[in-house]
Amino acid sequence: MNDGAADSLDEHLDRARSGERAALAILVQAHQRCVYSLALRMLGTRDLAEDLTQEVFMQMNGNLSAIESNRHLGFWLRRVTSNRAIDQLRRRARVQMTSLDQEPELFGVEADTDPLLQRHVQALLAELSPPARAVLLLRYQEDLDPVEIARTLDMPLNTVKSHLKRSLQSMREKTIGMPPVRWEDSST
Amino acid sequence: MSHDIESRLHSALRPVAPSDEFSQRLLRRIVLRPVVQPEVRRIGAGGRHPLAWWLTASLAATLILAVGVHQHLQQQRLQQSGLEARREVMEALRMTSQKLNLAYEAVKSQSTSLTDEQSGA
Predict the structure, then answer these.
(1) Do the chains contact at B15 and A29, CB–CB below 8 Å?
(2) Helix axes A146-153, A130-140, angle to 10 degrees
(3) Quick one: which H or E segment has residue A97?
(4) Tell me: the pLDDT tens digits for B10-42?
């Protein structure tokens, strides 16, 4: 997101705080992709992800006065989504990540990623504990650095680093024997 | 190798958009819901909802009133039983006094008749 767009969203945030609904709608549209993707990949089913996304935005609507900027809003949404998803997963005895097979949208229809890679990532996500899954998604989906992830999840930095290390190790083991496909080139 | 895996993960985990139907439904739900205006925090309120304060205050007032009424009734009962006890004691004294008077009269009449008999003899 460039500075101009961020400034514009800051203005929309001010207007949303003063009760302008069109501005609120713009904020929701700007952040729904991030919230929905996190919820979907954390919980594994579209229905649960939609419910969580709706709950998070409802909560945002009631907390606008505490949000200082659009950047803060992004941080707040990631934090609330991750924590709520972790809580939900902990409440359930075992997540039925097998249902991911029935969720083709998990990786996006527009994604030019290889199905085999998707299956590996899917298997990796299914094996991870809820906090480790959140760490991996914040790192590779949201492109946050470990310090930002630690702040978002209120987790020690070393724990974040060890989750990432273990996840990468697991991924590496799964991809042994895979041909070195260059995914970036597959779209061309 | 590590960079390769990381770039694969970046690639596989690109954000996905929700369905248009859900997106529209979400917007309708959020935008049609009244926006919560920033609340001015009152000093001493500690950020609690005013309704919670009203509930707490009325609960406390009810409790104080109930304790007051209870104490008043208990005091009345004590006063009543005290009066009853005094009345019973007075009644007992009155009866005792009557009995003593009767005994005195009997003794007195007996001693008078004895004196009369002795003087006649």
Answers:
(1) no
(2) 140
(3) none
(4) 888 888 889 999 999 988 888 776 655 544 444
| ipTM of the complex, rounded to two decimals | 0.75
Tell whether the model's pLDDT for residue A186 goes beyond 80: no
Taking CA A87 as the corner, what is the angle to CA A81 and CA A91, rounded to the nearest 5 degrees? 145
Domain ranges of chain B: 86-112
A100 φ/ψ angles, rounded to the nearest 5 degrees:
-60, -25
Distance CA B30, CA B25 (A): 9
**How would you label B87-96 residue by residue, b for 16+ Cβ within 10 Å and e otherwise?**
eeeeeeeeee
Q: Tokens 């003899």, residue?
A: B121
Q: What per-residue string of b and e applies to A129-155 under the rule 16 or more CB within 10 Å gives b?
A: ebbbbbbbbbbbbbebebebbbebbeb
From first CA to last CA, the distance across chain A in angstroms is 25
Contact A171, A123 (CB under 8 A): no
How far from B69 is each of B46, B79, B82, B83, CA to CA, in Å? 32, 15, 20, 21
Residue of B30, B33, B39 to mutate, interface with A, max A Cβ within 10 Å: B30
Predicted pLDDT of residue B82:
93
pTM for the structure as a whole? 0.63
> Identity (one letter) of the amino acid at B98?
Q
Kind plus residue range of the DSSP H or E element containing A12: helix A3-17
Cβ(B6)–Cβ(A176) below 8 Å: no
Select the residue of A121, A141, A175 nearest B15 (Cβ to Cβ): A141
CB atoms within 10 A of CB A19: 14
Q: How far is CA B6 from CA A21, A61, A168, B19, B82, in A?
A: 40, 35, 8, 28, 91
Q: What is the pLDDT of residues A2-40, one digit of tens each?
A: 556 667 888 888 888 888 888 888 999 999 999 999 999
Is the CB of B26 less than 8 angstroms away from the CB of A53? yes
pLDDT at A120: 77
Contacts of A107 in chain B (CB under 8 A): 12-14, 16
